[in-house]
Amino acid sequence: MYEIIVYTTVTTLVVGVTTFLYKYISEYLQSNKKLSITEFDVNSVVPDDINLSNNTKVSLTIDKTILQNKDNTDITFITTVIDEYNKLNKDLTSDFVVDIFINKTDSQNKFSVTKLVTTIITNSKVALYLEGNNDYFYNAKMAYSLNKKGYNFYAISFPNSGFTSNVNDAAFSSFNNIEFLFQYIEIILEHYKIKQIDLLLGHSTGGLISIMYANYKNSKSQFIKKCILSSPFLDWYADPNSTSFTESETFIEEVVTPLGLVVPKLNVKSIIGLPNTITCQEFNEINFNPKYKSLIVAGAYPEWIRTITLAHHQIQNSKIDIKCPVDILHSDKSVFWEYSENADNTLDINDITKYGALISSSDITFHKITNSIHNCFLRINIEEYLD
Length: 387
Description:
- The chain has 387 residues and is of the alpha/beta class.
- The chain is built from 9 helices and 9 strands.
- The chain folds into 2 domains: 1-32; 39-385, Alpha/Beta hydrolase fold, catalytic domain (Rossmann fold, 3-Layer(aba) Sandwich).
- The model has no long low-confidence stretch (mean pLDDT 88).
């Protein structure tokens, strides 16, 4: 009996260590893999999004108040939203185009770039936008304002998000290696012949990726001149009133994060039946397309959580320096997972200010946006933050 226990224990340890090393080595190899523009075909389409259309009078007429109840699980309502949205998309024109980059050998491996095409300025400055988790670019007002100030505007949607996503897929808006995402940005730079990024904009998870990319890109030269970040994702936000260990930030960091090397594809968050209170307040202001930004809670994998946690630790341990001026926008208050049209219900603003102060040896300016929701870009005039 004793030998069986020893054998089982040793076998378990060997399998565990082997799995750990395999995942760790795989991550290392992936982060050092180089993608090439020659691997992708590029197709251009007009975005089927009413927010990016030229018809500013187009909007949904359905009753959206059902979204304000986070306990409501009316999936029929979501279907109604999708149906009405599709009816409004007929014959819409747009000043935007979506360039879809499709891998020639794997058509499922694709990402996209949304850009303004009617006012491309020769030898102009470049503004690049990175979206948040469960998100895509639909803020036409910001793009027009930047273009007015002499910026050519590009917004990237990484694989599994935005205009190449499927919100019914468990992998929606997920990734397992931030450094590898840099390769997609490098392809964009080459494709559009971008020599420098004058303004890097990032919201939430896109803010975190922006910080990591700027740290990587500016380590040798100041390729990125300035960053503007809206509510960057710099730490996990758990219920401050909960006494349950499984609902704490410690549980996320010390229990779920290590699972990323053992069961990377375990879906640890329910996908069907939970209204996404994070985006409800945005939906009441901007009728975003539910095909690209889910009205229900997106899935979360341990590999994604681990990737985020590792990036958090680099920032929190002062291992990051983006070496350029940065403006950080945040609300004046946070609430935890409540419907609110005047507070950040996704992140703790105290984490944003605490850890945001560590990301650059250059100027860091915090802007408290009174009564702002999580996406501060929807509540500001971007022109006020330009040099």
